[in-house]
Design goal:
3% of the residues lie in helices and 40% in strands. 35% of the residues are buried. It has a seven-stranded antiparallel beta sheet with strand order 6-9-1-11-12-13-14, with no helix packed on it. It has 196 residues and is mainly beta.
Length: 196
Amino acid sequence: DNTFSGSTAVAGKDLSLGVITSINGTAPYTDTNVGYLTGKLDDVRIYNSALTDEQVHQLYSSESSGLVAYYPFNGNANDESITANHATIYGSTLITDRNNISGKAYSFNGSSDRLQVPENDAYDFGDGDFSITSWVSLNEIKTARIVSAGHRIDDGIWGLGFGSHPVWGSGLRINYFVYSGGAYRDFSSDEITGYT
């Protein structure tokens, strides 16, 4: 069971797609082990609760309650949830999505492209559960963040990534992290094998 629940204090509210949000809020954060996403991102949704297995299976046939961010990339980076917190595009370009429909996904160059969403209390989940869904296609297998949020120094950022990092264990993994109280807590999947 690779679900994450319980006390995961998250006080940050800035949201970034394709890069880690900096803990000081001044610029996207990168280090030698984790960088910008290189690939495609399509249909990002964030819920203010953990989805059940059944809700995940029904996700694309009907909406679940609690949707606080929805970026279907319908020719733009607008949030189509009730929050309506639209993203600013920094270099990312619209491309064909996973269903071969033009203008429905964003491409990221792996070095500077990102979508930046303004601060919003809707992304402050306190110590409650939440869920993130998205479709990702990687052009290059490297360690990168897919989505992250937060900006308060020592008081909470969170992110979802893919790749390999010494802290996550050996091999390719999906990783979720929380930065709170000056320390990181990492939760990683089992090693992913056979991915090319």
